[in-house]
Amino acid sequence: MAFASFDNKGGGAPLAEINMVPLIDVMLVLLVIFIVAAPLLSHTIKLDLPKASAQVNSAKSEKIELSIDADGVRYWNEEPLTREEVAARLIAQGKLPEQPELHLRADQATAYKAVAETLADASKAGLTKIGFVTDPEPSKP
């Protein structure tokens, strides 16, 4: 390949070859940067960590099934109660050292007011583990 030539045959024709020298230069510069930066990325601190067994913690906290039907009647583990009775039981559960999980089920037609009141009562009692239980939608084929 001749870069400079005195003949006019191919004077205006473009070169069909890629100049690889600049690409190789960039690649070598990047290689040097990675070689210099790699030891900085693997900086570790030596720690003598404690050993622990990998046994599953089988101590499950108690769970409370609290349901609210369409009429606003509250059910504590399927036992119908008034709002005041539920609030009193929530306060008693909130004072326990191991707080139970509160699983709240509400009918679709339940007024939001009943759900909000129940959540407020649970919050006042100091319960923090609250879950909403729903039915999954049927999968569409």
Explain this structure to me?
The protein is α/β, with parallel strands linked by helices and 141 residues long. The protein is built from three helices and five strands; from the N terminus they run H-E-E-E-H-E-H-E. Strand 4 (101-106), helix 3 and strand 5 form a beta-alpha-beta unit. The protein is elongated, with a radius of gyration of 36 Å. The two termini are 65 Å apart. 9% of the residues are buried.
Choose one word for the global shape.
Answer: elongated
Going across the biggest sheet, name each strand in turn. 3-2-1-4-5
Find the structural class using helix and strand composition.
alpha/beta
Q: Roughly what fraction of the amino acids lie in strands? A: 15-25%
Distance between the termini: 65 Å
Major sheet summary line:
5 strands, mixed
Helix content: 25-40%
Q: Secondary-structure element order, as H and E?
A: HEEEHEHE
Quantity of strands, as a count: 5
Mean pLDDT: 82
Model regions low in confidence, pLDDT < 50 over at least 5 residues: none
Radius of gyration: 36 Å
Separate helix tally:
3
Strands, helices and their partners?
Elements lengths: L20 H21 L21 E6 L5 E3 L2 E3 L1 H12 L6 E6 L5 H14 L4 E4 L8
Parallel strand pairs: 1-4, 4-5
Antiparallel strand pairs: 1-2, 2-3
Helix pairs in contact: 2-3
Produce a short descriptive summary.
The protein has 141 residues and is an alpha/beta fold.
Name the features.
alpha/beta; elongated
